[in-house]
Amino acid sequence: MDKLAIIGGRPLYGDIEISGAKNSALKLMAAALLSDKPLALSNVPRLADVDMLLRLLEALGVETKRNGTDLTLDARTITSTLAPYDLVRKMRASFNVLGPLLAREHQAKVSLPGGCAIGARPVDLHLKSLEAMGAVIELDEGYVIASAPRGLSGARIAFPFVSVGATEHAMMAGVLAKGDTVLINAALEPEIVDLADCLRAMGAKIEGDGGPEIRITGVSSLNGADYAVMPDRIETGAYALAAGAAGGEVFLRGARLDLIGAAVGALEAAGIQLTARDGGIVAARPAERCVGVDIVTDPFPGFPTDLQAQFMAVMTTAQGVSTIRETIFENRFMHAPELARMGAKISVNGQVAMVTGVPRLKGAPVMATDLRASMGLVIAALGAEGQTMVNRVYHLDRGFERLEEKLVRCGALIERVKGE
Ligand code: EPZ
Prior knowledge:
The protein has helices at 22-31, 48-59, 85-89, 98-105, 124-132, 164-174, 190-201, 233-246, 263-270, 308-315, 335-341, 371-383, 394-399, 403-408, and strands spanning 3-7, 12-17, 39-42, 63-67, 70-74, 82-83, 107-111, 136-140, 143-147, 156-158, 180-184, 205-207, 213-217, 225-228, 248-253, 273-277, 280-285, 295-296, 321-325, 345-349, 352-356, 365-367, 387-391, 413-417.
């Protein structure tokens, strides 16, 4: 397995191109199943998760053509409605093919995704939404077996709490359902708006996305479209935080401030200046150290859980104490003991971590169990004294495109050590 060797202590200066959003691209790719006309996506990040979903779509009969960040998906004929365990187990977002298959083919058999390192992550809200639209769902040997012989019908679906995946799933199913669907307490995340924009480009009738009530009027079929994936807001926040840990000034090309919600206020309060400029954002840490800031993760526009680990990494060397409360996932502090190996002072009590800033971390061998936690360790390493060896780089390859290349161009000393 590959590792990253990082020698910290060098400030970052330069340009970082922000890639297309992983968590948007994966849903747009699933949406291609809704139409028998080609969906041409651009700005698709080159990531292991995208490769994995492509493999699944190909297994369902989708013809795929890829050229750099351009990806054309042609679902003219769906040859299978089975999403097998092996392909769903490795990546939860694969589960989102269930709704589109059901909407278009009126049947699907999709493996349950199971738990993952950051929490149990059930899919009950996804299934209840599809049932409300008339699907008959059975669970058998780890698979969801769903059918809707007469197609799906519009429904009024009130989510008991906000779920990004369930909102996206219900929206994709609703666009081809008969009649009107109303989603109440829908997620507000920018990825929802990106998906709605793409579906509208394909001819879907959707209103209210970006707000808590989404109204969909079903149509009988969708067209193809050309659509550019929005910039990745988590990658944006992560590189701004990298500048916070290492110091310096980076231009995040293609990034948008409006996509990062409450993170803007938290980063600025910590001493990371964010300025919108000519098609991007300048992120800089003018002072010697950041300062401790308390954050609570929340659905958008709150502070994103996907930036929590990276923010904690910066807080480890900030002046003063900060508390970090994680409210979205029940087990998302696994980076804390790894940061402690580098000299961080963190005490975790349930869903709250208290971080007492120290002047400097020291490099150490570390390992992370999920994507964003791994990025937190990279950020900590960039500001630390000496060498950090980050193990299990495959997590990073799932979600951060050309990570080393982007950081090296800004002066970081970072090298991939090939594993056997
Ligand atoms: C998406 O996951 C993202 N993944 C996650 O990013 C992100 O952390 C999360 O949204 C929150 O912003 C993708 O888009 C592929 P949820 P999702 O449904 O949709 C519970 C990353 O690192 N829940 O909003 O799965 C759930 O367990 C990943 O890129 C149910 O109980 O998140 C969680 O506690 C990690 N039942 C909460 O809701 C359900 O049916 C919010 O989850 C669905 C969710």
